[in-house]
Design goal:
The structure is a homotetramer. By secondary structure, chain A is an alpha/beta fold. Helix content of chain A is 30%, strand content 19%.
Chain lengths: 342, 342, 342, 342
């Protein structure tokens, strides 16, 4: 059985990553690709690394025919996504990779994204796509909202600890180190090789990063009360990878046990032995997330380090995993490739 | 049907790459791993990116039991390889990734590797592992010698041209740009990040690189007379990738046609439209080789640019492809993963 | 004695590099900076690495007052440069870093740059700024045209050989490996970190790169007859550096002697012992050019490898060196900083 | 007036950086270089980027003649340093770059470095080399102990806050991102380009990094009571640079004012406007340290980000600055070069 797949916004990095993953998926077949600004071009001219694949030509969204499409991945920028998805057939299964449907509350959306939501009904309908925690809801969802890549990394490190109440909830610090591709293929001065390579910096410091909206929503839901974390991302000179270092107050062994227990049966979430910490290069190109916990010379402090590939487990890999769940396919289908190292 | 695989020298980069590729191979199963210096360790402690796989513990070669092994990949350093392979069961199918069995002539071996060959009978028996050109021999071989990664890149650019006599044979210049992993996981000052990143240099200049032995043997065989090319490799700050720029004298269109014709049916060899040139980043992590040809403002000159991933198509991917042929499996099995970009 | 300096186009990389070099120049003082698109901003907001310097605010060219300016560096894009310089005071000393005045012949300019020159008189007046070969003319020039960075690297490798006739003039192949900053701070998709890092590729293959205009002009002038070289640049993932590999037909020892003799008294041009080849990382951030020569196993072939920092010796360092000559200052003033390694 | 300089351990990165800085120092002249393992070699064979300098040949320490030497930089590994310095003339001025004399307390030394100190008298005599805070003592010292590069970055961010008591002293978290050259030119698997580039990881997590000994000693001294911070360094794929992100509890504006006031007259310490954060690439190759402060959406939280070049301000630049102070030279002599960007 083969499912027909459409990808909207196929000319960006998450679009390309979807095509890469689906190219070896046993039961998915790419049937339609859109990229408004590059409509008419072949995918191999936009992404020559996919040259060997026999992919449909890029079209505008309007030109696509969705009859026969089993699931649609929407890899558009936020704001554009809600407009486009509103106009799609109402019974089409959709995995959205943008930020548009991550926040359920219209007020929260407007606060973090500075514009009123234009599809509030869809916003209510959407299921938050952190697969391991919303599997049942995703299986029944029509519209799944892929999480922020930073938000995914942070939540894998923190959710079980908040749920199990093994850490102080008002004193969680999350320091992220993020690869460049998280910013997408957008053409900006600060993303040039000359500006990024051989240096690094904090950005969106001071609690201003939009993924905080997701942390607030999700961690508060888990805790049953408001939880606000302190979160600072840093840009490092690597293309793929997020490394989340979480500083918490709690018993390190209990922290480790909480995570180990929570992820015991998860294929993609690997908790390292106590005291070991992971590296982004060991998950690159794959759907795995490695998580380590260690104590500190100061009693009652624990450090959690979680790594994942922002384009894979952080967005497109997660999206395929969600699509598998939505379509009743084996959840790991197409996602078992090992990381590429070195 | 599942074949049992052994990998000798599994703690090096080509060993890790074999494990990565085989981990999603539909009919291969890793049954034994050796790494003398790291015997007793788990593969995941040596290569944490393979942590999710259930792999055998590393052993010494002597500790391994080869009964039940269908094929053995030998990813040892040259010189060590010939000693180890001599002592293996005589009916064991072997793909060797070292330089030890690439040259058929004992004199040529001794000239380039500065020591007499210690297994001259095996040397004679071995089949040169450039799959697309030795498919039939490989299918019947017991011992296949993987090619040098530089030699593979250069030969994909040049063999058809030599065979079709569309270029001057005494004036071929090959300028290579090579990623760092080609030097393996050897711990040398000149391979440190601080020494490699943000800079580049020629090495083995002046016709001293050992892969010239392979070029001499193979191109002369194809031409039916002695062919000597001029060859200079350069180290560039990237982990994977070889880009071969070949400067030849001949009609550019004929050069392009020669390559297009030769590789028309090859799954892994992609000839670009005339005038386009490829990039290493478009084959990274994959078994593909992209080849471009362009002319020059000076008539009668052509430039061929070929790219491949030295760890994949240049060594471990080629090795799996050869093993597939030797075992009668679909030649592309386990090798259809798309390149990882960015 | 302190000379007042103006820099036009100060918001680009060569502008920043000029400011860096001049910041420790014993007799230069930056008195005016222009950057039309960023006029009104401080230099430290555009280039925070210059934050410690007390620099003039960026203005438009029109807002600048050139009275009292001793020399003006023009770091504008080609085409813009000829327009701006035409409108500057006729007695102002100028070092232009663009391509606009490198070619003396209006026809050649139009051929390579695809538009007719708009200041043909200035074009005639301009002196080609390869300091070591035009020192006397530069000392008396009002307008000096900085060379292309690729053209500089190639000429340092080749000019003495052409002059001394130690190589075949109709068979010179120049393979360049170029850092990313050579493309300037222009915001283009192919210059993004995600597109450049960890990969490399040829560009402007087939004899189409504009610096060929300079090679044609200069090498033909040296030879006294038309010389056309074959030239292919490659983009490598490093910010600074050009490595020129020249393949020539001639006696390697004679080639080495020719270069050694020519550069014997040059402070910035270092010829390595015969058989050694240089690395870009050993000239990074400096005004030095290292040149090596080796022979080949094929008699009568020589390979020359020259390296320089495209932003320093390849453009802004060269420009300061030329300004020193024009103003009668010690030629090496402000330029003796050692390379930054690692 | 020119001072004669000796550098012991000149074949490491801090040795090379000393030579680079001193090469343009107006009153320092390198008179002797040692490197036991490379004795007999020229400095240009060990560091070709210094090829243009006329430097003494490398010798063993024993071969050096210290009469006439005005100051000796000791860039040896810890443990070796205390042995070598013990045997040097008792009146020789020394700037030590190792860890051997940073901790005044023999017990603390033994705790962090796991061996008893072999020169406890010298340990007592040594002055801690954080120039801006020990200027007077350094001016009169014979032996100055260069600080750890991480310790320098962290202290620049934290000392004034501890002194001014504007932050909670028992809840300081310091998350460092460190370039690779901080590990020196040591030949280790985890420092290979293939292992480092394109990835990042925490190391010495859990309060085990040796620089904590310095933080404990210095911050407790400033506070007048025991202060223990939580400190986790991370290795990022860049050669130079430390970025320290400090998470503190206190009023962000007061934090900013405390730092601004403390560094108002410091040439090399630049405090950015409130709310801005710095980047390592803006101090690379220079002796500058940029420091930024921002608040958080959670009241009473501040984040301080400090960046410096570990080889310059973090070790060799600091060492030259200290030598200037010790010799009564202008403190900034030889150190005013601008950062190299890009």
């Amino acid at each position: 059985m083969s499912f027909k797949i459409a990808i909207l916004g196929a000319s960006g990095y998450t679009g390309a990553e979807l095509a890469r993953l689906i190219s070896t998926h046993p039961s998915f077949e790419i049937a339609a690709l859109s990229a408004n600004s590059k409509a008419g071009q072949s995918m191999s001219s936009v992404f020559p690394h996919l040259r060997h694949l026999d992919l449909p030509t890029l079209k505008t969204v309007k030109e696509l025919n969705f009859s026969g499409i089993d699931i649609c991945f929407c890899a558009l920028p936020h704001k554009a996504s809600q407009q486009v998805i509103s106009a799609l057939p109402g019974n089409l299964k959709i995995v959205d990779l943008s930020a548009d449907f991550r926040l359920n509350d219209p007020g929260a959306y407007e606060k973090w994204y500075e514009n009123p939501h234009q599809a509030p009904d869809l916003q209510k309908e959407a299921v938050y796509g952190l697969t391991e925690f919303y599997r049942r809801e995703i299986a029944e969802a029509r519209l799944v909202a892929g999480t922020g890549c930073n938000a995914a990394a942070g939540q894998y490190a923190l959710r079980p600890l908040v749920k199990d109440e093994v850490v102080e909830l008002d004193d969680i610090i999350l320091d992220l180190k993020c690869g460049v591709s998280g910013a997408g293929r957008s053409i900006k001065e600060n993303l040039l090789h000359s500006e990024v390579s051989e240096g690094y910096n904090a950005y969106a410091a001071g609690g201003t990063h939009r993924h905080l909206g997701e942390f607030d929503q999700e961690l508060s839901k888990v805790a049953g009360k408001e939880v606000k974390i302190q979160f600072t991302p840093h840009l490092v000179p690597a293309n793929r990878g997020i490394l989340a270092t979480a500083y918490v107050k709690g018993n390190p062994r209990e922290v480790h046990e909480s995570l180990s227990r929570a992820y015991e049966k998860e294929v993609f979430l690997e908790v390292l032995p106590f005291g070991e910490t992971p590296a982004t290069r060991h998950v690159r190109g794959s759907n795995y997330c490695h998580i380590g916990v260690c104590g500190d010379r100061i009693p009652g402090r624990a450090t959690i380090v979680a790594v994942l590939d922002n384009l894979a487990k952080g967005s497109s890999g997660q999206a395929v995993q969600n699509a598998n769940v939505m379509l009743g396919v084996e959840e790991t289908a197409g996602l078992m490739m090992a990381p590429v190292f070195p």
